[in-house]
């Protein structure tokens, strides 16, 4: 055998201790308002999750991550949190939360909750107090208030732009302006203020004491800011090196916050876990993934890659190397609540790339803008490639994040009318960015019914009729369905799990990747259009139910059983 390359993560067997659960977990992301609606108000809820605990268990996931379920005015789908230590009354109560936690724990499923520390809701009691208390008050110190510029201060303090479009400053009644990197209903917190530091420690303890196993930390790279005057312009901000001393992004001092959180996490047995959502350059990811910081960080490289062998291989090798720089494991993501679903991305022409490799426009955006007509979506090809990419991902060392509905082969929903849209990025960009509602449409559980089994009322986002074909009821027990493929793959993965190493094997083809795990579990993906022969019989195929063959069809991933068990 020639050209074997090794990419080592930290080996679980480096110590005598069993590897912590999170290192190689399959984590299923639930967007609670769109998962299951138990009380029939059109909005998913906590009791809905409890009612589907058996579904999650049969799927075979190790953990769920819940997007925010806290009280919220829903200016940003719940990422505008009005109270970090309660449940949105429309979604249930803290008792409902405890019941859900117990139901999932009883089935061996861990629970990770979303923590949103860069901003809160403008309905948060501290922000309301700040508005009332007026300029110069200690209450305003908890946020970033500044005087405007120009005559009467009528222009914002700077020309900074918010992530959802439009200015990053909003003017209040008395004439001052406050900073919001996202929607105006999401004021940024002043992390120099000790009150937030104490308050978030309280929040982490609040959920940890209830038994929550870990936290997903929203925009983890943006909390701390150097806001000494004079403030730079947007152009100056854009030109600043992102080396840890940037004024607003990925500052080294954010890790002082996480060092304090780490003490909290480690004061529990087992220690609570955290995963950073940090959109930073990959050489800065290990800072977030280090043992003294959050411990693990998302890597979105697979998510922004095309369905392409060379890109996938580069992403895997690079990220295993990065994970190896810390004692963390890598994470893998193909879909989440912020991006066009991967079945749809792969059914559209590959996007143009910027020099740094990122898509020139958000992938799928033009298609969404056209209402799903232009360019043409090849649903079958997208679905086939998506299953292949998922099986490729699930074989990798590290933890894999699945997004609700991908196990049903769901496509993005494009036909949502302007009047039904909810995402602030749609409103703030004047429709230029259609937003993320298309991946947040409530799940189809059954073929019939007003909400396809999601609940008894019409759902908060419309479900197109094609969703019925993807319903859980339609796929359950049906050989060859995407749902059954996920179930089988997760069961095998659990059986075959082993040390966090991977070795690339030569394939003789540029469009085929082949890797082997330490126990002999092999994964072969054909990205192109021709069959590929393998020497050992195939145990699982992403494109059909045939096992035992030695041929991997086009756009397909094959799993070959381990030759030995660890
Ligand atoms: C994160 C979330 C996204 C949210 C934003 C602001 O990127 O994933 O959904 O809009 O933060 O909280």
Sheet with the most strands, sense and barrel status: 7 strands, parallel
Q: Just give the CATH class of the largest domain.
A: Alpha Beta
Based on secondary structure, the structural category is alpha/beta
Strand order of the largest sheet: 9-8-4-3-2-11-10
Contiguous low-pLDDT stretches (5 residues minimum) are 1-13
Give the number of helices.
16
Shape: globular
Q: Helical residue percent?
A: 25-40%
Name the bound molecules: alpha-D-glucopyranose
CATH fold call of the largest domain? TIM Barrel
> What is the fourth-level CATH superfamily of the largest domain?
Glycosidases
Our measurement of the CA-to-CA distance between the termini, rounded to an integer number of angstroms, reads 23 Å
Mean pLDDT reading:
95
Radius of gyration: 23 Å
Number of beta-strand segments: 18
Please state the second-level CATH architecture of the largest domain: Alpha-Beta Barrel
In percent terms, what proportion of residues is strand?
A: 5-15%
Describe the structure.
The longest helix has 17 residues, at 194-210. The strands form four sheets. Strands 9-8-4-3-2-11-10 form a seven-stranded parallel β-sheet. A six-stranded antiparallel β-sheet has the order 1-12-13-14-18-16. The protein has a three-stranded antiparallel β-sheet with strand order 5-7-6, with no helix packed on it. It contains 16 helices and 18 strands. Helix 5 (194-210) runs parallel beside helix 7 (254-266). Residues 1-13 have low confidence and may be disordered. The chain folds into three domains: 20-118 and 194-485, Glycosidases (TIM Barrel), CATH 3.20.20.80; 125-179, Oligo-1,6-glucosidase, Domain 2 (Oligo-1,6-glucosidase, domain 2, Alpha-Beta Complex), CATH 3.90.400.10; 505-566. The protein has 566 residues and is of the alpha/beta class. Alpha-D-glucopyranose is lined by residues 76, 79, 116, 182, 218-219, 277, 337-338.
